[in-house]
Amino acid sequence: MDELKALGIDVGSTTVKMVAVDAQGNLSWHYLESADPRVEDQVDRFLQHLKEETGFGETLPLVATGYGRNLVHQAVKKVTEITCHATGVYRQLGHGGTLVDIGGQDSKVIIIGENGQVVDFAMNDKCAAGTGRFLENTAGRLRVPLDEMGREALSADQEVAISSTCTVFAESEIISLIAHGVEVNPILKGLHRSLIKRVVAMIRSIGLQPPLLLSGGVVKNPAIRHMIEEETGEKVTMPEYPQLMGAYGAALIALKQMDKS
């Protein structure tokens, strides 16, 4: 392993991700866990895990992002997810475009310019519809594992429209559909469609500038990718590790910060 030079951590609502980069900014090490409400203790564990696996640890500069970034007292800097995802994706793919980042707690559409800068963005952080939480809240009700929802949705020949854009009302609607004997997979397909329509409305609100790029853990779901392409008519491009792009961008910013000092 090349010598590690900087760290980034993305403290999300459902998972926490840490990335280490070498002197050239290559993604050289990563680790993730489900989010722990005791963020400070979790970060300490991550750093200990890094030290055990690589021999590097607390001496590396760390930049934090994500909704819990202000709780990372080890960080030399805290940066918004918008900047970090744009930085990580631009470095990984080598070009700008319209980035859709769908996370557990919020979703964002970010226009990335030719030099990797954020040109414009739209964000949904006030409502769970249009985020991973929308699917997560219904996975238990439908007795379908979260990581199988997309595959099950795509296997359906039919699609049941979910008219409610609110997660709470959508769950009531699903209960009613099940009570009327509607099969699970068409409901799943309709749920995904409802989420994607919300995201595509955000894309259209700021204007789609191709290519269309994806990041965030939710986009690993194949139905999400398929339906975004269907609704926009654009082929999507995704980095190798979409879930790590926030942490990767944070690590790149930490590396740049170190170079300046």
Task: Describe the overall structure.
The chain has eight helices and ten strands. The model has no long low-confidence stretch (mean pLDDT 90). Helix 3 packs parallel to helix 5. It is an alpha/beta fold and 261 residues long. The strands form two sheets. It has a five-stranded mixed beta sheet with strand order 3-2-1-4-5.
- Continuous helix count: 8
Order of helices and strands: EEEHEEHEEEHHHHEHEH
Shape: globular
**End-to-end Cα distance:** 25 Å
Which strand order does the major sheet show? Answer: 3-2-1-4-5
Please count the beta strands (DSSP E, at least 2 residues each): 10
Q: pLDDT under 50 segments (min length 5)?
A: none
CATH topology of the domain at 4-86 and 243-260: Nucleotidyltransferase, domain 5
Radius of gyration using CA atoms only: 19 Å
Sheet-strand content, in percent, reads 15-25%
Helix content: 40-55%
Q: What is the CATH class designation of the domain at 4-86 and 243-260? A: Alpha Beta
CATH architecture of the domain at 4-86 and 243-260: 2-Layer Sandwich
Round the mean pLDDT to the nearest integer and report it.
90
Task: Tell me briefly what this model is.
The chain is of the alpha/beta class. Helix content is 42%, strand content 21%.
Keywords, please?
single chain, 261 residues, alpha/beta, Nucleotidyltransferase, domain 5, five-stranded mixed β-sheet, 8 helices, 10 strands
